[in-house]
């Protein structure tokens, strides 16, 4: 009986086992059936997915958690949720999504997708074997973690691409950038708004940055005063000495009626020397003539050379009967005409009687524009030159080559622009570069392109007519991926033709170099091999061609910017570099010295061509002074809260020409205000508005610790004393007695600046404050202390009297922008940034104000239309609180054609 029972139990267990096995087999069959239902897509099906798949990008948190990789980005990471919703069923596989993500992905979580960082910012989302397709309306999600933080909605990049082998890549429609119809600026509808202060807006719990509310902005704007300032006598940039003529009886300022225009007497001056300035006067409404028939106010132009005065100095006299401008050179006369234009107000027919003696504070007054990362048109550059000249800036640092693009035609090296000037979907990079920075697969996109020789020479001629020196930059040896890949394509082309000598003539990469590195922008192949003689042949050929272009255009190239910054740790496994280090007469003993050696050698090549060297401070700081030419320009870009003044001082003490390019105030690609909707990077500053630039005292870098904060809005200390290590070695020191900086330069980097309008939005009106600080030394500026000093919030070198004088000066400057200068920018079709509006609800009324008095304000109540704001608005019982977000405010351009970003009153 027991045996029968045992047999029965065994049979029962066997049956159960077979049942489980059968169920597993059935599940496997069903899975295989599901998998077999997914197949290779056709181009039509791929196009349908691109048109139909809805992608959403949502920041989850910036607060690092246990999943952050401790070996990357100092253990800091942020989390993003990507969601994919299919409008129609997707029953194909073997496709991938390529997308740009500035901060590389560390890790991810998904049952059906994987992410891989490829190069630079390019990533690929692939399908796992477990991918089952999409049902109509189904949403699938993918969580990933990336390095550091995401604090701005503009960090996300557009133009996700879907791709399958043997098919054409397509942009996924839902990820395309749109244009905001009110502001004219780029918008990314697929990016969900940032709203959580603690998890999304701040870097960490110690971050003291305040999200700028309309109420906070209202309070800040109150410092500008309540009345309408008289800006009729304001000139931007402010002259060194100015005296206005008053009526002896009334005490009022006397005026000159200019409604009948001016009649110009050029004397011995060539009309071409000032033609651009006269054209601007005409564009502002002043009739200009030099014919005998015209009965306008006499305007005489003279040149009186004076070696005791700075280049570009001038005098301007407006009397009851005439206007006279005297310059120490033609540039000075040109500047005097621009001051005349600055006195003008659109629609007004009078000028104040005035006597001016003026000269620039700095000889170098510059702006750097990056057209390499994302291309900007020739027309944009020409318009920019007009405005630079209007405000007396005289140096255009044109950044033409970087990892993502080469933007200047070089005769004899067509690959540089044919390959390096375009991004498309070519994994082999023989026809174009791989897409970066959300460029998408279209090689004809406006973010791609280059200046032909004719284009570039047109820019040079326009610059010369405006007394602006163009300083070209093609970044080397790092930041050189576009050049490296272009010359690799050239190498492959001639190798296939068995023209071996030509193939290696300008080779920038070494085939057998197995070095592994990652640049600051996460490229592993962006650095020129500095141990190849062909690299120096390339530099010489390029510079010889650039020199010829300048000469033919009538603006000889006097200075070239090597770049030389952020060079990654390349060359460690390069056979050529190992051989060079083992046997050279340059004194090089290790791979860490090769970057400086490259700069020294390129500086020598430039010297042979009679071209001066310029470069970024971090690259130059490692060079040996005795190996460099006597004239070197160093762009100092150290952060002030990180004691960046020390490197600027060290390079100036080498007797090099230091151009202050401080990121926390001089980088125009940073946000204007602390708000996630403000466009730009923020690694050095969360808010760099026009007032902050106006406050800058570039002669005295460390003093800003008294009143500025670091990138997390926390106090910092600037120690500008003599500092030695334990062995008595001097680590840092103040400027040597009498040392001064050459000048000041603003920077617009273009990683996420994809249009000309957005570039103008970031440059203007900050450019006007840059011009003010580069030209004029205000009385409230703290002189540099050559004995050294340690500055902090507790010290008082910048005392209350200076602060009050500065703030009063800013109030007048801001009013001049709002009442006079913005209208002039609009005449030139410049898309300057319209400020967000300050507003509050108090005692049942809406109160609003603006950073630039003179611009109009509009408000909108829930369910109603926009209305002009003329003063406090009764809200019929609405008070601050839950109802407040229903009220919106925005600014209006002077001509009424554009609107600023709409904000809620909170």
Using only CA atoms, what is the Rg?
A: 31 Å
Average pLDDT: 93
What is the CATH class name of the domain at 43-201? Mainly Beta
Strand order within the widest beta sheet: 21-22-24-25-26-27-28-32
Question: How would you classify the helix and strand content by structural class?
Answer: alpha/beta
Extract low-pLDDT stretches: 1-36
Strand content: 15-25%
**Count of alpha/pi helices:** 21
Largest sheet: 8 strands, parallel, barrel
Helix proportion of residues, in percent?
25-40%
Shape: globular
Distance N to C terminus: 86 Å
In the CATH hierarchy, the architecture of the domain at 43-201 is Sandwich
**In the CATH scheme, what's the topology name of the domain at 43-201?**
Immunoglobulin-like
The number of distinct β-strands equals 40
Keywords: Glycosidase, Hydrolase, Signal
Family: Belongs to the glycosyl hydrolase 20 family.
GO cellular component, one term: membrane
Active site: 566
